[in-house]
Amino acid sequence: MPFPPSPWHLTGDMVVSLWRVPADDLPPWPLPRGVRPWVVRRRATLLTFWVDYRPGGVLAYREFLVALAVRHGRRLAGSTVAAWVDDEQSLAGGRALWGIPKEQGVITLSADGRGGRGELTAAGIPPVRLTYRDVLRLPFRLPARAHLVQQLPDGTECRVPARISGRPALGRSRVTTGAGAPLSVLARHKPLLSFAVRDFRSTVGS
Fold first, then answer.
1. Which of these, 47, 45, 60, lies nearest to 13 by C-alpha position?
2. Cα distances (angstroms) measured from residue 99 to each of 5, 29, 35, 120
3. 8-204 sits in which CATH class?
């Protein structure tokens, strides 16, 4: 399956939730060599992303992604531990270019003026559902940078830079799913913080 070369320039809307969960509750997600979960007071940090990538970027698709905050040497980074998309080019490119473990899923996202809903259905997992509502919209665009540490199919380490800017809003969300692996950790806990980033422009890769 052909896919765009790196970097990918993407645009759209997303809802992000931050979770602090007991480190002992983490599934046995594989991580690149030398990378370990970032644990503070016996709790690890997860981020979930519901993303509607819109026309205007190199691809248009929907994605549900779970990233774990990790220590990479002396630096703090993220590592994608699970992801589902509804586009074959995104799936093939994410795996081949950056080692992101994307799987095929059916993702529905809907939005109204101040919130929205999402649902993921995929083979081997219970459905995952999101409800989100804005609490405070911020009147400016906010830029941010991060990087992921992944492992390519041949076993080599891949560092994936990401840049984004968009219109942020703090909000409240509820994520529900069943008790089946690998997302049962989300069923047992609630997000600590949620926010939306609308009309974002991002660059993934280099």
1. 60
2. 14, 14, 14, 21
3. mainly beta
The list of the chain residues with pLDDT below 50 reads none
Burial of 166 (0-12, 13-18, 19+ CB in 10 A): buried
Determine the Cα–Cα distance for residues 183 and 181; give it in Å rounded to an integer: 5
Q: Which sign, positive or negative, has the C-alpha torsion 58, 61, 62, 63?
A: negative
Q: Where are the alpha helices (DSSP H) in 22-144?
A: 88-98
What secondary structure does DSSP assign to 120-133, as a single string? EE-TTS--EEEEEE
- What does the pLDDT look like over 38-50, one tens digit per residue? 999 999 999 999 9
Domain ranges for the chain: 8-204
